[in-house]
# Entry
Amino acid sequence: MTARARGRGWRRAATAGAVLAALAACGAGPGGGRGDGEAPAGAARFDRWIPLRAATLARTEVAAARVGRFIYVAGGFVPSGNATTAAVERYDIARNRWTRVRDMPLRLNHPAAAAHGGFLYVLGGYTADAALAGETNAFLRYDPRRDRWTRMPPMPTRRGALAAGVAGDRLYAAGGASGGRPLARLDIFDFSQRRWRRGPDMAVPREHVAGAVSGGAFYVLGGRPGDLAVAERYVPGRRRWQRLRDLRTPRSGIAAATVGRLVVVFGGETSRGTIRPVEAFDPRTGRWRALPGMRTPRHGLGGASLGRRVYALEGGPQPGFAFSRALEALDVRGG
# Structure
């Protein structure tokens, strides 16, 4: 390689590093063009949600997690016969661009997703079409570098509509439903030992919940039956659950993401429709505060964050089998 070529390579690497540093600082991408009326990916807005490039698929009851600068959206229902899909899409935050990657080895709706060590993990969910049936204990790992899925040790519990999150070297899976019955169960996977163990139950059995991790604690939020406002967190060092102040808006079928220490909850549904209000929990004050309402309220959506920005991905704009390709983002102050 010539000195000139090495110089060009160094400048390209430096530019890429600067882009990623900017993403980490502000949670936004540098652009990617306009399409379908979306705003530039780098336009920071604290007062309202902005639309970004729409996904390649319209889906609901998906799972999402971020690995590096990419957000992965897995599974869900699709409009054709309300079928369950194994499809996985990847959103490039830096380029405001979607790509299909390798399908999961099985079709899942209502799974949970989390990231650890550069891998995407998808667990649980239902396998039936157009129904909440056929719950599974599947635990899958996706390697972005090889575009390959691997089956991990299965969960001890078959369940769908559960919450999941990673804190340190452990993955926490809580709640969900099995045989139509809401669960309070917590299962903990140790990545170093590649083994599951059971943790203490939550105080309130529930499903269609959201999970998030802040300050090393695992939060489980909302859910049903009855569209609950319940918020609990599991503190690993104490091996116990803490009941928190209730959400401002009871909701189920929701998403959550962390900005700094703030836990942001958005989306969901009740019998009256999908939910516009957005709220954030501050562990330092123990209180919830309102954030700007969603531009396109949805349930069964995916949620992720980078820096100060949260992303709401796909989901249904009306209760039941409704589908969307929408991707919208909000910048959050504080945290």
